[in-house]
Amino acid sequence: MSHLSCRICSEDFTLQEEHVPRSLTCAHTFCHSCLASWIARSAEIENKGSRNVECPTCRAPSAVPPSGFPANYALLEWLESKKEESLAISNSSLPVASGTCVECQQAATVYCSSCGDLCAGCSSSIHSSAKSHRVCDIRAKPEPPRFCGVHPGEPVKIYCQMCQVLVCGLCPFVGVHKGHEVEEMNEAAKNKVIDVVESRKTIQDCIDKNQTWIDDIKLEHSRVEVELKAVSATVTTHISQAIACLRRRESTLKQELAVVCSTKQGQLDRLLIERSAVASTLASIESEGKDLVDMKAVSLLENYASWRQKVRGAERFERKAFKFQALIPQFDIDTLGKIILRWGILGSPDASLLQSKAPAVNWRNELEVGDSIEACDTVGKWYRSTIIQVKEGAVMVHYDRWDPKWDEWLDTGSDRLAPRETHIICLN
């Protein structure tokens, strides 16, 4: 059953008196004749002359006004407008707008309320005799009518604020849009235009800010590229200088190493001569001992005391610090390579720059009892030293080969402490 018809007789509401829609207190609507009959019948069933009636649909009681129930003026207004629109549509013979001239199919430039879309030539030809036709630019052409999807044939002319859709005049009273806040279509369009204009300003501000960010990012990108090239060139220059410095020191280092190795070889040669002499002496003593074994008793006893004295002398000689393995100087190739590398870097004019670029190792916090380091005394001379005690933030240093009375506490951050072979270069 349609919401546009009476729920008692099922007849459509009209503007005629007997089918005029009238509403009860509960808002249900019935035609005038059916509602009058229902009131009369209800009065007969109940107490005669009763002025209350139950709704035929929901059974809610409604007091009957002295002048009768009011008409549903909203529905009456809609019925009136629908009647006028139907007459206007039936009398209209306008063709559907196509964007092209209805006469020659060329692009339309003008619109005639009687003829439709026309090109300039056809419009001049037709309207030379039809002076009463209303003609406007094609851009001012009114929109074609649009109809409601819920109520077929009903043109849309109201905007539902809650659902944000165009609806017909019936939708606010029946169906899903009933009770929703609505607004007249043209007025809603004006309000939306104002909102769009304000929103466009906000969007334009966002566009300007975003463009500023893009420009800043591009500028920073260019700056990073320039800095990268500059830093790369600086690194190349420093590396080239370091390599050139190491090459310049190559000859000097080789000469210094030759001197060191010659000294070691001289020490080894002297040890070899000494040990050869010892070997000869020991061989002579051993030979004399062999001869003693073959001697007669008198000769053996006469020569034994002197031979035994030679043996004791050889034993005392060996018991001293004259141990062969300890007397050979140790030649550490790994240590030698580290010294060469350190000399090469420290000899570079850009050594401080190269060292500052390397990650710093906090060796001072790693110091333990027994660690061998270098320490500087109060007069600025460096010595090999040993850590003998450790406490938070300080270590006690013993200067190797010096009396313990010179032992002293130094802060771990003191510049008087340094790793081994920083200031004292030695190969053994």
Any descriptors?
428 residues, alpha+beta, Herpes Virus-1, Double Stranded RNA Binding Domain, 4 domains, five-stranded antiparallel sheet, three-stranded antiparallel sheet
Number of helices: 8
Count of DSSP strands: 15
Q: Tell me about the biggest sheet?
A: 5 strands, antiparallel
Given the helix and strand composition, which structural class is it?
Answer: alpha+beta
Helix percentage range = 40-55%
Whole-Å distance between the termini? 115 Å
What is the CA-based Rg, rounded? 60 Å
Which residues form runs of ≥5 with pLDDT under 50? 89-97, 321-329, 344-361
Largest sheet: spatial strand order: 14-13-12-11-15
What is the element string, with H for helices and E for strands? Answer: EEHEEHEEHEEEEHHHHHEEEEE
Task: Give the DSSP E fraction (strand runs of 2 or more residues).
Answer: 5-15%
What do these coordinates show?
This protein has 428 residues and is of the alpha+beta class. It folds into four domains: 1-88, Herpes Virus-1, CATH 3.30.40.10; 89-191, Classic Zinc Finger (Double Stranded RNA Binding Domain, 2-Layer Sandwich); 216-327, no CATH class; 359-418, Roll (SH3 type barrels), CATH 2.30.30. The chain contains eight helices and 15 strands. Strand 11 (372-376) and strand 12 (382-391) form a beta hairpin. Helix 4 (185-294) packs antiparallel against helix 5 (297-319). The protein is elongated and about 175 Å long. The chain starts with 20 loop residues before the first strand and ends in a 10-residue tail after the last strand. The model is unreliable at 89-97, 321-329 and 344-361 (pLDDT under 50).
